[in-house]
Amino acid sequence: MLDVFLCCSPADRKIAAAIAARLERGAEVAVTVDDDATEPVAARWQGGMSFAAVLLLLSPEAVPPRVSREDWGALLDHLTSNAEPPAGAVLVRSCGYPRLLERMHFFRWDDEPLEALRAIEKWAIRLHRLPQQRSFAPARLPWFEGRQNELDLLWQALVDRAGTAIIVNEAAASGKTSLAQEFARRAGAHFRDLLWVDCGGCSPASFAGELAGQLGASCEGEPSEAFAAMVQLAGRHRVLLVLDDFPPGLAIPLADPQGRASVLVTTRSEQVQAPAAAEVVRIEKGTEAALAIPGNPVDVRLWRAMAVCRPGGFPLELAARIAGVEPGDAAGACARLIEARLADPLDDAEGRLRLSALSLAAAGESLEIERRRHAELVDEAACGWAIGREFSPRYIAEFMPAFRWAASANWPLAGALVRHAFALLRARGRLAEGVELLVALREAAEVCGDWQESDYCAWELSWIRGVPYRGADREPLGGGQLMFDFAP
Questions:
Q1: Angle of helix 316-323 relative to helix 327-339, nearest 10 degrees?
Q2: Nearest to 278 by CA among 299, 255, 301, 298
Q3: Is residue 176 within a helix (H) or strand (E), and if so which, with residue range?
Q4: DSSP-based three-state secondary structure for 237
Q5: Which helix (H) or strand (E) segment is 53 a member of?
Q6: Which residue intervals of 364-450 are DSSP H helices?
Q7: Using an 8 Å Cβ cutoff, are 374 and 417 in contact?
Q8: What is the pLDDT of residue 469?
Q9: Does pTM top 0.85 for this prediction?
Q10: In whole angstroms, what is the distance from residue 367 CA to residue 371 CA?
């Protein structure tokens, strides 16, 4: 934990304590308070030269009655030379001070204490060695407006403390995800990292695996327990975790009670099991946007390709490959689709987009060519990993949708996809997701009467689950079940 040296007068002890409590809880910063009455703060600030930062509280009791270069010279030289550690000042009550201080990290307590606390916390967060690229960088939604009351509630519940908030509306395309995304964009600087998990149509194993990937951790054990463990791991630091389109009937895991994470959930159901102190934000459905169906053939091809990807978040690069559109043309077409409200930007860090339920419905059902191409590209990516090609984790969310189509339309591709995807997931510490694919393949094989494929899945699952294998005439093997043929 970083440490900050806070210099004040005895008269400002309560304000110093409020700032210290906010920074220790919200910015992972330990604060040492120097409230010595013998000298003004301009003479004591150098006691913090070994700290990560210095913060001075300015008031008539804390500074000399007259501003002079002799009193302030050392601090002004420190500031103008951009020397370490960085120094900031909080104007507690009107007093004399060099106006040069206002050009640096300067906060006004007398105007609005809450806003001052938030601004000081935001400054303190930047003292940490933050990742060069955040796990999730919420894109600006060019059409977003209003929702100020809801945004204010989210700030109070998630920024001013470590808490849980749940955005609820039963209807699809009601604005839940947009509100969460806009809040994350505006409040992101108050967190060390932003984590976004698209839960729509997924299992706890997928939640856990996706979150583990963003945390750089391995994910093992029973899915719901693994998911809870990943949330607790995230909760050790001041991060914002967004669980988008969380399914009903599941419990929202608590971050570590001693941790600092805030959790934001969007859901269509009030049946989720929420922590008692969670802030529930019920929103009215927004005005439905008028979708402008494109006339440009390139735009139409790209939009149809987007419609077969995972709607909650997919890479533009994948949609462009499905559509057979060159990257340069895809960027222009994507911009036009966003303007037409047929696609929404989601994540600037990974170049991901999402499609609303309205856009998906407008895209139509006759997308078999695009679905086939989607499944082939996803399998190609999983297979290519085994022979040394670069693999994007963004494709993992596409495994199950691709398999579901292939299971009914291209059975050989379905089996190959599961084998390749399982090997990759196991190597990446996401075995539970791989097991789900094996189970799905076995069930589909039994429906279509492919007993060889069903037997193969049972053979592999027996090793993973540690249960006796009862199937074809195979001798028990010591781990050999996991040796796959990676031929395309």
A1: 110
A2: 255
A3: helix 176-187
A4: coil
A5: strand 53-58
A6: 368-386, 399-409, 411-427, 431-448
A7: no
A8: 57
A9: yes
A10: 6
